[in-house]
Design goal:
Elements lengths: L1 H106 L1
């Protein structure tokens, strides 16, 4: 009878040790999984940052090109207006001078 009780106690101790070992193993795997998940999370974040940075750079380049196009178009418009002004300036100058002199001479 004593042998049976010792055997039962031994089985119980073995079961307890097995349970403890299993719990330690589970805990180690959980810690490893947490580390893996954390690494993956950081990798995903880094990839997302790189993608956003790349898209941002592409948008900056597009906007820069549009600004340059607008500046070129504005410069062309300015030159066109300046040329038109240069063409009509002598006429306006003569007409204005004639008008002023006519008014002045007409009053005198």
């Amino acid at each position: 009878m004593e042998d049976i009780i010792k055997k039962i106690i031994q089985i119980d101790q073995n079961a307890y040790e097995n349970k403890q070992n299993a719990e330690r193993t589970i805990k180690r795997y959980e810690e490893k999984l947490e580390d893996i998940f954390e690494d993956l999370r950081w990798e995903i974040l880094e990839r997302a940052k790189e993608e956003v940075k790349s898209q941002e750079q592409a948008e900056i380049e597009d906007c820069t090109a549009m600004i340059e196009d607008l500046e070129t178009a504005c410069q062309k418009d300015i030159k066109r207006v300046e040329m038109q002004f240069q063409q009509i300036y002598p006429v306006i100058k003569k007409e204005l001078l004639a008008h002023i002199l006519g008014e002045y001479l007409g009053m005198v």
